[in-house]
């Protein structure tokens, strides 16, 4: 195993929406990509994904799978990242072109990855990613923590209260239904 200590690191988060919250970012600069992460407070808004890839030390993926996000992280994206960058995927296996991730790690385009989701799931026993010592795996449970469960419950309860008070909740997924 290995450790990374980067007190002035930049994490880039690609998301469609943020249901939870990052409770502590310590010394990290958080950049968010407008198209996918709308609700994260305290982060620097940047609209250029290529810029984010070039500047980020950690890239954390959280988007839902759409035609636009399918294999959005292929070899071209890895080539734009720092060779010291670390990729984290807790969203959907199809967001990453897995064979290109293998190439990116083998050719040292990025320093490593943390993978919580695979394509296909479950991953085959002969997945070449298992051969790297700089790839961390989890069984699609990375976000299942007591804190995440509590945050989700509190967020849901607050949004229910907002709706009952006639207020539009901030994390509504389908806002077009609000005015029906």
Please tell me about this protein's structure.
Helices cover 23% and strands 17% of the residues. With 180 residues, the protein is an alpha/beta fold. The chain is globular and about 55 Å long. The N and C termini lie far apart (53 Å).
Summarize the structure in short.
With 180 residues, the protein is an alpha/beta fold. Helices cover 23% and strands 17% of the residues.
- Indicate the radius of gyration in whole angstroms: 17 Å
Structural class: alpha/beta
Shape: globular
| Total beta strand runs | 7
**SSE succession:** EEEHEHEHEEH
**Helical content (DSSP H or I, runs of 4+):** 10-25%
Largest sheet: 7 strands, parallel
The low-confidence parts are 1-8, 15-37
- Give the N-to-C terminal Cα separation: 53 Å
Oligomer: single chain
Note the total helix count: 4
Please state roughly what percent of the residues sit in beta strands, choosing from under 5%, 5-15%, 15-25%, 25-35%, 35-45% or over 45%. Answer: 15-25%
Placed side by side, the strands forming the largest sheet appear as: 3-2-1-4-5-6-7
Mean pLDDT: 77
